[in-house]
């Protein structure tokens, strides 16, 4: 039986009216071959263990040969890019091949990124380079390992097709899985083109597919929007807690399910630096790390605007007002877990503020700092003090922290064990991604595989990979990544 016949595939997006998408076949690339195949994820969709050895499957999933099980299409959407509305967006280089049904019955879009031009490509070539594909593969899997809502990566292929950016690079393909590829920008497109029937149809389908719990509420559209506000707040709180900066929070890169989406010039902070800008083209710092909460609210306001034809403005405003308290409450939960402080005391706020101000003034490594705090059951205080330049101040801070910990019900070993579940040892530092890319461009994919493996369980010690949890070298800090991908 052909391998694809064993996979449950559906096509619910094609039930939408034609204005939502265009059917487009992938444009084949030369000599596609697997860089990496996400076997554990693939198994959840019924792919057998050796699926990546099937040349037939490789040809189909790379878009080299046609399979009748798929109905590739490019979605139409629009969006606000750096605050300016752009009506001309859509899948310019990625195609929805179909939707896969997981073993637990959930439906996931299977999207092939880098598949060639579409009616929405504008002047783009429809391709993706190996460099950006590796970054997206590794980061989406790293985020999943951290427990942050995200799209997933099923596999990645490299090809012999040259792709022209600042230099000639290898064309690559990413197989992305996501519960949806519907973005804030989908709603904006139908609002700004005044296609209010389509807008409402989209909302109805989003509720049916993704928020069925809203169907029987008094105001299903408002309930849907409230869910999107809550999910977005939770995602951003989690980003802030783990030190992740997305880099291009345009409304076309915002999933309506609050999942981290469209990885571009993202970065995990090395030194604690609230104003960290990871996107080389973000001259104003619009998408700086500490702006992410307010930008998410700005994006939700843009989405709210698109929903005004069928939700009363005052209701939308009330829903938007829920964003900041929700985010702050989630963030506070994450931060308390990071410090291992469960009990609440009035003086905690001041302690957190002082701690962050100290971390910032010292430029301490964010991830290493919290991981070291989580290991005080087995390491001595030098593991913390050594991270700071001002050792006297660091000692004073640490004794204050330890004094505060004494007020906790959990004793040090138990507290530290809990803290290690909130403070990863391994993150996808930009310099590590860069090293994996440099090797991959020489044909050596070993570091891609190693990082993918290690980042699956970032809270585990994995002592054989200590070198991947080291402080970054000077050249690797504050790397700003170009948008070109
Ligand atoms: P991004 O910056 O990747 O979120 O993409 C913004 C828009 O540009 C989307 O509509 C993409 O589909 C489109 N796009 C990005 N890169 C390309 C490319 N190489 N060819 C065609 N369209 C692209
Ligand atoms: Mg995008």
Description:
With about 475 residues, the chain is α+β, with helices and mostly antiparallel strands. Among the domains are: about 180 residues, no CATH class; about 80 residues, no CATH class. The protein is about 40% helix and about 15% strand. The strands form four sheets. Strands 1, 3, 7, 8, 9, 10 and 11 form a seven-stranded antiparallel beta sheet that branches. A two-stranded antiparallel sheet has the order 2-4. The protein has a two-stranded antiparallel ribbon with strand order 5-6. α3 packs across α15 and α4 runs parallel beside α7. The longest helix has 23 residues. The model has no long low-confidence stretch (mean pLDDT about 95). It holds the Pfam family SelO. One of its GO terms (molecular function) is magnesium ion binding. Belongs to the SELO family.
Instruction: Tell me about the largest β-sheet.
Output: 7 strands, antiparallel
Reading the helices and strands in chain order gives EEEHHEEEEEEHEEHHHEEHHHHHHHHHH
Strand content: 5-15%
**Which molecules are bound besides the chains?**
adenosine monophosphate, magnesium ion
Give the C-alpha Rg: 23 Å
Number of helices: 16
- What integer is the average pLDDT? 96
Q: What gap, in angstroms, lies between the N and C termini?
A: 38 Å
Low-confidence stretches: none
Q: Name the helicity range.
A: 25-40%
Instruction: Find the count of extended strands (DSSP E, 2+ residues).
Output: 13
Shape type: globular
- The assigned structural class equals alpha+beta
Active site: 252
GO molecular function: AMPylase activity; ATP binding; magnesium ion binding; manganese ion binding
Binding site for ATP: 90, 92-93, 113, 125-126, 176, 183, 262
Protein name: Protein nucleotidyltransferase YdiU
């Amino acid at each position: 039986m052909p391998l694809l016949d064993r996979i449950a595939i559906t096509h619910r997006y094609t039930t939408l009216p034609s204005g939502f998408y265009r059917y487009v076949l992938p444009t084949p690339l030369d000599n596609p071959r697997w860089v990496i195949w996400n076997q554990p994820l693939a198994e959840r969709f019924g792919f057998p263990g050796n699926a990546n050895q099937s040349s037939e499957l490789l040809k189909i999933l790379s878009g080299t040969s046609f399979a009748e099980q798929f109905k590739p299409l490019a979605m139409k959407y629009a969006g606000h890019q750096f605050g300016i509305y752009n009506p001309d967006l859509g899948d310019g280089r990625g195609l929805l091949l179909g939707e896969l049904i997981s073993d637990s019955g959930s439906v996931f879009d299977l999207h092939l990124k880098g598949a060639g031009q579409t009616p929405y490509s504008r002047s783009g070539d429809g391709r993706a380079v190996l460099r950006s594909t590796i970054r997206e593969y590794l980061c989406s899997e790293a985020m999943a390992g951290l427990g942050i809502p995200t799209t997933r990566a099923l596999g990645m292929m490299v090809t012999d097709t040259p792709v022209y950016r600042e230099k000639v690079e290898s064309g690559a393909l990413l197989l992305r899985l996501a519960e949806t590829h519907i973005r804030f920008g989908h709603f904006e497109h139908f609002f700004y083109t005044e296609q209010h029937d389509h807008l409402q149809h989209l909302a109805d389908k989003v509720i049916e597919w993704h928020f069925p719990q809203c169907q029987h509420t008094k105001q299903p559209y408002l309930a849907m929007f409230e869910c999107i506000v809550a999910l977005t707040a939770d995602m951003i709180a989690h980003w802030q807690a783990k030190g992740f900066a997305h880099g291009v929070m345009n409304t076309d890169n915002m999933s309506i399910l609050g999942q981290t989406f469209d990885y571009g010039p993202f970065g995990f902070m090395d030194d604690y630096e609230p104003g960290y800008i990871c996107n080389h083209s973000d001259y104003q710092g619009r998408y700086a790390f500490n702006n992410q909460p307010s930008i998410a609210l700005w994006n939700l306001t843009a989405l709210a605007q698109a929903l005004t034809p069928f939700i009363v403005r005052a209701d939308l405003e009330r829903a938007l007002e829920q964003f900041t308290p929700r985010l702050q409450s989630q963030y506070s939960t994450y931060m308390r877990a990071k410090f291992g402080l469960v009990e609440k005391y009035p003086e905690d706020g001041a302690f957190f503020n002082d701690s962050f101000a100290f971390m910032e003034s010292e430029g301490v490594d964010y991830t290493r700092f919290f991981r070291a705090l989580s290991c005080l059951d087995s390491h001595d205080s030098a593991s913390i003090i050594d991270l700071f330049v001002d050792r006297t101040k660091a000692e004073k801070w640490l004794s204050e922290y330890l004094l505060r910990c004494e007020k906790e019900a959990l004793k040090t070993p138990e507290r530290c064990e809990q803290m290690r579940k909130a403070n990863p040892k391994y993150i996808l530092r930009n310099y590590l991604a860069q090293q994996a890319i440099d090797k991959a461009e020489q044909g050596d994919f070993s570091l891609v595989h190693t990082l993918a493996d290690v980042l699956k369980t970032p809270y585990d010690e994995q002592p054989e990979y200590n070198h991947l949890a080291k402080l970054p070298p000077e050249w690797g800090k504050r790397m700003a990544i170009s948008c070109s991908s």
